[in-house]
Design goal:
mainly alpha; Ferritin; globular; signal; DUF305 domain-containing protein
């Protein structure tokens, strides 16, 4: 089981991801998409969206084991909304990573056989991803992306309150 991460680590991780996104090659020239940098959708937003999709895809595997329909539907809704924000094809650059809020394959495997581990991993996903969302919220300037961040924050807050 992973140890509880410090908020400082989450901010450093998010900053590193955002810095890496800023150093990527620019997207090919062509007509701007509705979510292009011309509309405020930049490298920060793209990095967040890619990270959030990877995290939610892994989390969906975990919460499906738990059978909590609210969590399942929330992750599915978030994935739909996140994918709408993409300005280029999605590539999961985070497969196999152990990052705050993202259940690992090993955790999902253990959760499939241990209800106690499953409960702990779901709670860890909720608390850690909420911290990441709060950090991202202060860096996101693109309004549609900010709205998805707010939706995800509302989901995590309600899910944590629900036990």
């Amino acid at each position: 089981m992973r140890s509880r991460r410090q908020p400082r680590l989450i901010v450093v991780l998010l900053a590193g991801l955002l810095l890496g996104a800023c150093q990527q090659e620019p997207t090919p020239a062509g007509p701007p998409s509705p979510t292009s940098a011309a509309n405020g959708y930049g490298a920060t937003e793209r990095a967040f969206v890619e990270l959030a999709i990877a995290t939610d895809e892994q989390a969906l595997k975990l919460v499906e084991l738990d059978g909590n329909t609210a969590l399942i539907e929330n992750r599915r809704t978030e994935l739909v909304e996140l994918r709408k924000l993409l300005d280029a094809p999605y590539v999961n650059n985070h497969a196999g990573h152990d990052m705050p809020g993202m259940p690992t394959d090993a955790e999902i495997q253990l959760a499939s056989t241990s209800p106690d581990a499953r409960k702990q991993f779901v709670r860890t996903h909720l608390t850690e991803s909420l911290e990441v969302l709060r950090s991202a919220g202060s860096a996101i300037t693109h309004q549609p992306t900010a709205e998805v961040v707010e939706l995800m924050e509302r989901h995590r807050t309600a899910e944590l309150a629900g036990g």
